[in-house]
Amino acid sequence: MQDPPLRLQIDESSASDIEEDNGFWNIVGGKASCRRIFSLDVVLLNAFGQTVNKELEVVASLLYAHSQLPVEKTNEEEAPLLASCDGIEFASCDRPSKLSKGRASFKLKISKLSSKCDNRQFCIKFGIPKFKGYHFLEDFSPSIRCISRNRTPRASTIIWKKTSAVHPLNGSQSFGLDDVSYEHKHNTVHEAKLSPTSKRIRLAEAKISTIDRVGEECNSLAWTPNQVENGLGSSLEGRPENFEEVDNVLSDSESTGARDPALRNVSSRGHSVSDLTIFRYCLGGLTDRSVLLNEIATTASDEEISRFANQVSLYSGCSHHRHQIKMAKRLIDEGTKTWNLISQNNLQVQWKCAVFEIEEQFKKIACCTTRSLTQQDFELLRKIAGCQDYMAQENFEKMWCWLYPVAFTLSSDWINAMWNSTSPKWIEGFITKEEAELSLRGPKGLQEPGTFILRFPTSRSWPHPDAGSLIVTYVGSDYTLLHRLLSLDTVYSSGVREMNVKPLQDMLLAEPELSQLGRIMRHQ
């Protein structure tokens, strides 16, 4: 046959972040803070099953599965099906995907819930508008149950460890700082709505470095630094910083990373931490995760925690979770010991009496003997703790969940050398986003493009996957202030010794957007 007929077909092997349950798809949707992105590819095939390279556009739309009628959009509502492009959501009908070498990729979100539509099931229709009415150039997904992330809560009694003054580890925080917007929530454990027969569909993708935009799952803009000398390639990852995150929103880090086919066999290996716990962690907010880690850290061995960290990284597609989970036991144990030393069985202690022990523990964890914390550093820690002259255990835990990951980061040889450096002073101390921006503006306006300052984000506390990460705040070429979160996982997880890679400061200065180190101007 010279010109075999064509057909449009969903490539189900490309599906990502979709749960398959007895022929149905379960997708997390609903309001913006809860819905999750999922990915699908469609391919244009000839009669022999070969992809056909034609420059055509494919559009996705949401239908009711039983009638194949479009899901309605009421006034002032979002479109029922959203297409994500460069971190921005569009109505899917307004954002077609172009076929490239016979394949079109979609990153979608569903804003409707089945429970809000008389428990009806949906399906996604893919079609080529140019050939509307040709049924062989359309394809439909399996029936979809669009569910929310809300689970039935049960009160948690998990605490760090029993002390004379007992307070639960509270992942919800409200500091009132420049870039902090956590909200208070009850400390609860949630049961995930997962069918025992459900399986996680993931696309086996190569591990990539990306820039994540606000709230987005997979963007492919790379901020590539100088390559490290041992052939690891670009290991410094930059991402725009997002500080408008509340407790129940997925982190920016967990939206990108390696998706490994090995996760399909994870549930069959019989590890002590159940698959349900893994799913609860992956889908839960910061409070849910802190409670789960408290429970796991007090009962599981180091080996079991390490396995759990690897499993969560596989299921979530985010390697950053691994560090937060692996440090959980030490963070909780050392936090409990430090509070006991400070409190001496009192419910509250004077802040000025606590700073000495806080600094001693910080220097011990950070492996720092030469540099002390300044008065300004302690003032920021007190704001994070949310206390004034007196500090309770709840305040201490808020502060500790921010400080410990920072100290853990500083214990790395690369960052430790930068922290201890006095000429130049690469990291001036604990500063806020506002202070960094004010310093780069200066009394005479913005400094030269490429001037940058390193800081730790004040809104990233354990177990947030970016807790302890570094932010580079810099003046862009168009004289705008920009913020990038640096991800060093590739280098740190490789086991490469410091002598085999370039120092971080050299990698930073090799960036075309960065040219000189700025100085902090503090206002008394």
What does this structure look like?
The chain has a five-stranded antiparallel sheet with strand order 1-4-9-6-7, with no helix packed on it. It contains twelve helices and 22 strands. Strand 2 and strand 3 (24-28) form a beta hairpin. Mean pLDDT is 75; it is low at 150-237, 242-271 and 494-499. It has helices spanning 275-283, 286-299, 302-316, 320-326, 328-343, 351-366, 375-385, 393-410, 413-420, 433-441, 489-492, 504-509, and strands at residues 7-16, 18-21, 24-28, 38-45, 57-64, 81-85, 88-91, 97-98, 103-110, 122-127, 138-140, 144-147, 153-155, 188-190, 199-201, 237-240, 348-350, 390-392, 451-455, 470-475, 481-487, 516-517. It has 524 residues and is of the alpha+beta class. Helix 5 runs antiparallel to helix 6 (351-366).
How are the SSEs placed, and which strands pair?
Layout: E1 7-16, E2 18-21, E3 24-28, E4 38-45, E5 57-64, E6 81-85, E7 88-91, E8 97-98, E9 103-110, E10 122-127, E11 138-140, E12 144-147, E13 153-155, E14 188-190, E15 199-201, E16 237-240, H1 275-283, H2 286-299, H3 302-316, H4 320-326, H5 328-343, E17 348-350, H6 351-366, H7 375-385, E18 390-392, H8 393-410, H9 413-420, H10 433-441, E19 451-455, E20 470-475, E21 481-487, H11 489-492, H12 504-509, E22 516-517
Parallel strand pairs: 3-12, 19-22
Antiparallel strand pairs: 1-4, 2-3, 2-15, 4-9, 5-8, 5-10, 6-7, 6-9, 10-11, 13-14, 16-21, 17-18, 19-20, 20-21
Helix pairs in contact: 1-3, 3-4, 5-6, 5-8, 6-8, 7-8
